[in-house]
Each structure stands twice: as structure tokens, then as C-alpha cells.
Amino acid sequence: MKVPLLDLQKQYETIKTEIREVTEEVFASQRFIMGPKVEELERQIADYCGCRFGVGVSSGTDALLISLMSAGVGFGDRVITTPYTFFATVGTIVRTGARPLFVDIREDTFNLDPQGLEKLLLSLPGEERNKVKAIIPVHLYGQCADMGPILDLAGRFGLTVIEDAAQAIGAEYELGKDGMRRAGSMGDYGCFSFFPSKNLGAFGDGGMVIANDVQIHERLEKMRNHGASPKYYHAMVGGNFRLDALQAAILAVKLRYLDEWTRGRQENAARYRALFKAAGLDQIRLPAEKEKRHIYNQFVIRVPENRNALKTFLGEQGIGCEIYYPVPLHMQSCFKDLGYEEKDFPVSVKAAETSLALPIFSELTLDQIHYVVDIIAQFFNSKKN
SS3 breakdown of the chain: % helix, strand, coil, rounded to 5? Predict the structure, then answer.
């Protein structure tokens, strides 16, 4: 049996008629850059996430970059984030001329540890602490970071919060008296990626920044179009960060199905849990469901021993799987000048050595899930003999 890590062709078969209709509308209009399709999607994403404004941009990476630029982060500043995330989180910090400061992750959720954040902020000398301008918590694999204490610390130290929600559209967190909040709506900026493999994926690159502050919204709108307002008049330097109309039209169709697809992923996660338990695979650590709504962009297990051998074995049996991420960012060669050592963030290192993502897409069948668990059981049973 073949079980791909992700099967977008199955998803497309269910919506291709609608997709073709809206793309034909864009072709007929010949309006490919910005325009009403982008504006419609911005309103829809903002509403879906419980935010006032949305600004469509060219990718999730550019969503982070334009947010940092809008927040005034630049040369010599410091931005705090996690070393266990996709490269863009830290790459965009460095591109502004700022320096990343890392905080290790929690062992259960893979997300930034608020206690480590507080410890770092309190340990910095006054001059160095004054250089810290922002925090980027990452909602990894589809579950929100522990935003309550992160926001409290940001308020206490006067820091901008830029949520990296690239993998977490629709994930929820209970924020004290504010009740249930969706990923991206809690900080000053919320950044999403519409890369095709995401739960809400475009047919190419795309992204969005959401915000509640009208001045931030206006600044983002200018900055994504070279800082121009009106056309050809530039009060600031921005960039070409525009979302195109074709991607917006496709995403608006797919957004209508997002909650249905999320339920499918959640149901598949529950099936995995039941089958792993029935198989007695106690050596496998399953994803923690700590926050209220985990959307399962990835289903990441921990394999304390023989992770690499298991990955190879699964591949040989036709099962797609992936390591997100094999090298924490503080160990990447391009960041060696930051001066960190491997031992500085042991939880991130352990996650890189033991984590493995299994197929979780909503169209996954029960037979395929059974097959994945059966093959994993077969692997570990062979190790006992």
C-alpha cells in the first residue's frame, strides 16, 4: 500500500470545478495583481481569525519580513524566537539587520517556553535588553504557543509580538478573560503562509498578515507595494510583497472547506491515538494536545530510539514521512556567528533527533492509517527479536 505524506490531488478532485470557475473569472478580468479578489480574501481571513484587518502578501516568509519592517526592527536590534522552527522565522530577522536571540522550546508542544523567555529577558544587561524589540512565538505543527504568559512578558518589557502562525490557521487558545482566540489574532501581527502543503494552501506561494490596529494595517498596505501612497509617492521604503489575484481566488474557494478539512485531520489524529494504544506502542510519544484546538498541520511523533531507521523502513514500505526539523537553527552553519553551542538548547536538539511526521491529511483513509501503525509495530517488534 502507498501512503503519501500529503496527497493534494485527492483534495483538488473535490473542488476542481469551483477552482476552474474562479480562475476563469480572473482570466476574463485580466486583473492579476491585487484588486477585488485579494480584498475579498483579506476580509474573509480576518473574519475567520477574529481580527479586524488582513493584508495579503506574496508568501509566509514575506509576511514575517514585512511585519518586522513595519514594527521598525532594524540593524542592531534584537528579536527573540525559538531555534526549532522553519528557517524563515530566523532568516527574516537577520535580513532586517537584527540579531536573533533564542529561547528553547517546551518538550510537550515544541513551542517556545515562556519560562525560558522570562529567564532570558531578566538575564540580559540593561543595555542589551533595550535592544530587544520583538518576540516571534511560533505556533508549530498547528498548535498555539502558550500565549498568555508570552503576551504578559511582552507588555511588561514593551515588546512587539509577531505571531508566526504559518502552520496554524484556525488553531485556538484560551486567553484568560478574553476567552478563545485564534492563532494570529493575539499579538500585534499574525503571519500566515499559504504554501501548497499548508492546511489552507494556494497553487503557489502566498501569505497574509492580520492585525487589529488600524495604523499597523495602513502601514502594511503601503509597505507591501514599495511604500507607495498614492502611486509613485513614497513616504517609506517597502517592497514588492503583493498577493496575486489568482491565488486569492483559489484560496477563497478553499477557505470554505477549511473547517471540514481540519475536522478530518483531527479525526485522523484520534484514530492514530487509538491504534497506537491498541498496538501497545508505548515507546512512541504522540503529539500533546495542550491547547484548545490543534489543527494538525503535521502529526509529529517522538521516537526516542531508532528514529532514522524507522524513517527508512517506512519509506521502503511506501509510507511518506518527514523530519521537521533535522537541524535546529542555532546549529545551522549560516548562524555560527551568533556564538551558540549545541548544548545551549537541549530540548530543541532532542526534538530534532527524535521527531517524525506521519501522514495526517484529511483524505487519508482508515485503511491507510491502520497500515502506517501496523508497519511501525512491525518495525519495533523486529527489534525485540
Answer: 45, 15, 40
Alpha helices in 160-201 (DSSP H): none
CATH number of 8-103+111-255: 3.40.640.10
Strand 299-302 with 355-358, pairing: antiparallel
pTM of the model: 0.96
Which superfamily does 259-384 belong to? Aspartate Aminotransferase, domain 1 (3.90.1150.10)
Q: How far is CA 8 from CA 196, 199, 361, in A?
A: 8, 10, 9
Three-class SS of residue 383?
helix
Neighbours of 263 (CB within 10 A): 12
Q: Can you tell me which residue has the cell 537584527? A: 98
Q: Which of 140, 138, 114 is nearest to 288 (CA)?
A: 140
Q: How many CB atoms lie within 10 A of CB 365?
A: 12
Packing angle, helices 8-29 and 245-255, rounded to 10: 130
Could you list the pLDDT tens digit for every one of the 385 residues in the chain?
999 999 999 999 999 999 999 999 999 999 999 899 999 999 999 999 999 999 999 999 999 999 999 999 999 999 999 999 999 999 999 999 999 999 999 999 999 999 999 999 999 998 999 999 999 999 999 999 999 999 999 999 999 999 999 999 999 999 988 899 999 999 999 999 999 999 999 999 999 999 999 999 999 999 999 999 888 999 899 999 999 999 999 999 999 999 999 999 999 999 999 999 999 999 899 999 988 899 999 999 999 999 999 999 999 999 999 999 999 999 999 999 999 999 999 999 999 999 999 999 999 999 999 999 999 999 998 877 6
Find cell 506502542 and name the residue. Answer: 281
Alpha-carbon span 296 to 142, nearest angstrom: 5
CA atoms within 13 A on the CB side of 282: 1
Say if CB 103 and CB 113 are below 8 A apart. yes
Q: What is the DSSP string of 236-299?
A: S---B-BPBHHHHHHHHHHHTTHHHHHHHHHHHHHHHHHHHHHTT-TTSBPPP--SSB---S-E
Domains of the chain: which residue ranges? 8-103+111-255, 259-384
